[in-house]
């Protein structure tokens, strides 16, 4: 276990980073300019920095192993942590715009790797603006799952263009999702839930999963319980609204 005597940001009991040292504003403006490095193309993403157990810099260029799950706006990383052990052979990444929150997730993953030996080597996080740079990170059809859990509702109508689910952005998500890939969304804001469901329902490259498919999918059960926001909603007895859709070939 990590020792916290020399590092007050770590918990003495768990060795994990303390959230109070990494608090940030609940949301950021995704349309504002931020200063962080962005890969020129997916082939320029250095996997060895995020998954050192699986990659070295020398085998980065010709490796066929790719990230398959992307948690967009991953927050404090709760979903990634849960998915890591559920799909131990799948590479997955969280994409977060807030710098302090991203740093927390990095430290959390590092602490979990140290205290759990070979576990949690398949997850990582990157600070980026997914509304602008999704095509810089993923190739066509690369992903099999994308997650949008409790995104910023941007209540004002003039700010709806900042919403992470829109018809325009679904074009990009459809590009990086393989056929059969799944988009998972959930919110505690009914109007936003209706918005996301309407966008997905209206897009020709997505179709809703049947009820029996939702019940059989172990990931669906995590949508409302794995994240800090979901746990907060549950504690307060709030209601959630989810939309889960599959990437399909549009009918002619």
From TrEMBL:
S-adenosyl-L-methionine binds at residues 73, 96-97, 129-130, 149, 227-229. Its EC number is 2.1.1.33. Keywords: Methyltransferase, Nucleus, RNA-binding, S-adenosyl-L-methionine, Transferase, tRNA processing, tRNA-binding. GO terms for molecular function: tRNA (guanine(46)-N7)-methyltransferase activity; tRNA binding. It is an enzyme of class 2 (transferase). Catalyzes the formation of N(7)-methylguanine at position 46 (m7G46) in tRNA. Coiled coil: none annotated. InterPro entries: SAM-dependent_MTases_sf (IPR029063), Trm8_euk (IPR025763), tRNA_(Gua-N-7)_MeTrfase_Trmb (IPR003358). One of its GO terms (cellular component) is nucleus. It holds the Pfam family Methyltransf_4. It comes from Tripterygium wilfordii (Thunder God vine). It catalyses: guanosine(46) in tRNA + S-adenosyl-L-methionine = N(7)-methylguanosine(46) in tRNA + S-adenosyl-L-homocysteine. This is tRNA (guanine-N(7)-)-methyltransferase. It is found in: Nucleus. The keyword Nucleus applies.
